[in-house]
Design brief:
globular, mainly alpha, two-stranded antiparallel ribbon, 4 strands, 52% helix, two-stranded parallel ribbon, single chain
Length: 182
């Protein structure tokens, strides 16, 4: 699906009339995806622009924006999965930076009607790649791990060496990309 955390940030920015960077910071520091987790009245300070004073906003309102959009994204994912959901017997694994937000697992559980929901955290990484063993990098790490396992199957020693070299270059590219944008 072409939706994710950026879509949620855009919604916060539009509804609150603030810049994208400010909306992203609010989403990361004060965001919650499940309204029952929010205290009755918690305040979020939205920084003022151009010398104006910060303005208070309800954390519940921020949560409603997040929960509404994320719920819509999850419903689209559930719809896309369609008949596969009838034979579903495992966990729903949530990855990406948004998966760290409080309330995401509760919302996913509600939308999919199951308690079998967890964050995906890569476990087969070590050494130089250990910094990528977090939920934000789980999808990319998983793809690289699976790719490496497939290559190690029946490959010749030369091919294995080429594969390791290619994987190392790919990790370095991924690492540089992540550092540049995050």
């Amino acid at each position: 699906l072409p939706f994710g955390g950026i879509t949620i940030t855009n919604d916060i920015a539009m509804v609150k009339g603030i810049g994208f960077d400010t909306a992203e910071r609010i989403k990361i520091t004060k965001g919650c995806a499940w309204e029952p987790l929010i205290e009755e009245y918690e305040e979020v300070l939205i920084p003022g622009i151009g010398g104006r004073a910060p303005t208070p906003a309800s954390r519940n309102e921020i949560c409603q924006i997040i929960q509404s959009r994320l719920g819509e994204i999850l419903l689209l994912a559930k719809e896309r999965l369609g008949s596969y959901m009838n034979n579903f017997i495992g966990n729903i694994v949530v990855t990406g930076a948004t998966a760290k937000m409080p309330g995401v697992l509760e919302l996913v559980s509600e939308v999919f009607g199951t308690q079998a929901v967890r964050q995906g955290i890569p476990s087969k990484l070590s050494g130089a790649f250990e910094e990528f063993t977090t939920v934000e990098y789980a999808t990319a790490a998983g793809l690289l791990i699976v790719h490496g396992e497939m290559d190690d199957g029946e490959a010749s020693p030369r091919r294995k060496k080429e594969s390791r070299h290619r994987d190392h270059k790919m990790w370095n590219s991924l690492k540089n990309f992540v550092k540049e944008f995050f």
